[in-house]
Amino acid sequence: MVVPSARRSPFHWSEYLLEAAELGIFMVSACLVVALVEYRGSPLHPLLPQAWLRRLVVGFAMGLTAVSLIYSRWGQRSGAHMNPALTLAFFRLGKIGGRDAIMYMLAQFAGGSLGVLLASLLLGNVIADRDVNFVLTLPGAPGTVVAFAAELVISALLLLMVLASSDHPRWRRYTGLFAGAFITLYITFEAPLSGMSMNPARSLGSALFAGRFDDLWLYFVAPPIGMLLGAELYTRLRARGYRACAKLRHDSRLHCIFCGAHVSGSLSAGSGS
């Protein structure tokens, strides 16, 4: 039954809560996986003597976490942005309203921080160990300039992939899988440059509990710029513009705040079926 517009709330609280919960779960997973792999007291750590191999394991686990969230009923309901920079890019493309964009971003920041808090309760002192360190994102040995450039580039490339695949009738159902693959590759190969964030809310959650904010600005600036540049490039390359929905996986059977309540599988509605 469709609720009359006069009674419909201007806020979509269910979607906001789901966005917070999804990033919270992602951060809990990140903390647990990094503790399992990097903490020297973990039984798994001696089995992975090389740093790149440990990053590969972490990357695969976090890619799998992202895919699971994107294709979950929660993720298909909210769109599984889990990232203020991604929400901002969809706002730039006109796919999410200003009120919802602000509420999504606030929810993501809250969820990221609450996720690290929950992980701290589960892991105790282990999460503060120097090799885990609340999964803090920090510039690598090449320095801040390289880290900034790397965050900008990987954010732009991820956004271009999301737009290109979700806007294509054949590939849109695989957008979440592609996103998981990108996360795996980025953590494995790019993390030594910037710590691999792409996400201001994810970095803030770690920084709050680690008590280190000197490099936080980088993760608040580079990922949004990168994704906005990706959105701009896509719109210039595609004369017809971006026609899909602001979701990484759209299920036409579920309520959608971006393109209507229960929509058909038409391309104009942005269906991901």
Keywords:
273 residues, mainly alpha, Glycerol uptake facilitator protein, 60% helix, disordered N terminus
Q: Would you write up a description of this structure?
A:
This protein is mostly helical and 273 residues long. The protein has one domain: Glycerol uptake facilitator protein (Up-down Bundle). 60% of the residues lie in helices and 0% in strands. The chain contains nine helices and no strands. It has helices at 13-38, 51-71, 73-78, 84-92, 98-123, 144-166, 175-194, 200-210, 216-237. The longest helix has 26 residues, at 13-38. The chain is globular and about 50 Å long. The protein starts with 12 loop residues before the first helix and ends in a 36-residue tail after the last helix.
What's the SSE blueprint?
Elements: H1 13-38, H2 51-71, H3 73-78, H4 84-92, H5 98-123, H6 144-166, H7 175-194, H8 200-210, H9 216-237
Helix pairs in contact: 1-2, 1-5, 2-7, 4-5, 4-9, 5-8, 6-7, 6-9, 8-9
In the CATH hierarchy, the third-tier topology is known as Glycerol uptake facilitator protein
Task: Please tally the helical runs, counting DSSP H or I stretches of 4 or more residues.
Answer: 9
Taking the alpha carbons of the first and last residues, their distance comes to: 23 Å
| Shape assignment | globular
Q: Level of helix content?
A: 55-70%
Which CATH architecture would you pick? Answer: Up-down Bundle
Gyration radius, to the nearest Å?
Answer: 18 Å
Structural class: mainly alpha
SSE run: HHHHHHHHH
State the CATH class. Answer: Mainly Alpha
User: Using DSSP, what is the number of strands?
Assistant: 0
The percentage of residues in β strands lies in under 5%
Nearest-integer average pLDDT: 91
Catalogue the unreliable spans. Answer: 1-6, 261-273
Largest sheet: none
- Structural domain count: 1
